[in-house]
Please model this.
Amino acid sequence: MSQATPTRTQAERADQTRTRILEAAVREFSEKGLAGARTEQIAEAAGVNKALLYYYFAGKEALYAAALEDVAQRVVAKSMEGMNGECSAGEQVMHFALNHFDRIHSQQAFQSLMQQEMMRMHRGEENALTPIVEKVFRPMMMVLRDQFVEGKRTGELIDADEWQIMYAALGANVFYFLSAPTMGMMTGTNLLERSAMEFRRKAAMEYLGMAIFTDRQHGAEVAARVLASSPMPASGEFKFRKFEVKGK
Model:
């Protein structure tokens, strides 16, 4: 006797259950890390029993890898939204850089997971990031690199190494958030307060407009246009997890 094919409703319910588990896992792993996270807490937060959790995922490590890949794919999809053929290559780069700043600010769970995995990579430990780099991040970065190449070809962007332009466009965002506690101590300013981040976000775009465009006036106009079209997300302030900043 042949096995009955699941109805669409059953398939949808299964997808919804898996999604709830992954969302709960992202929160738990981002807050407590792989070692500290508990599958019992994930199952409870997802509204399922532990046996059902293991029905979908073979074990804690498999769930962790699936959660990291799921959130990475969603973040990449969001990052690519501003990159379309209607804009020049330079403007697409600016959209990506601004989205990158906003992602660090608003996607705290993803940032926490990424920092955990990069620390594991630096220690030479087995990690879940390597396959995701190949499957998710490399295609995205190749698209961005192609925009740099196209911008240089048309003369819109300066004739510099495309990877160096990428470091300049994205690296400053990472450094701002990582150095904010220390820089805040030196300046007596809370650099993670929303108004401070809004100021830095605007300054970063204006700087890129002057730095990577051959025509600074054009670069300034692009920066203004991109900022006007993409208000800063109204999410909570960025906070550092205990495992992210040693000695805090």
Notes: DSSP finds ten helices and no strands in the chain. Residues 62-229 form a domain with the Tetracycline Repressor; domain 2 fold (CATH 1.10.357). The CA atoms of residues 91 and 225 lie 9 Å apart.
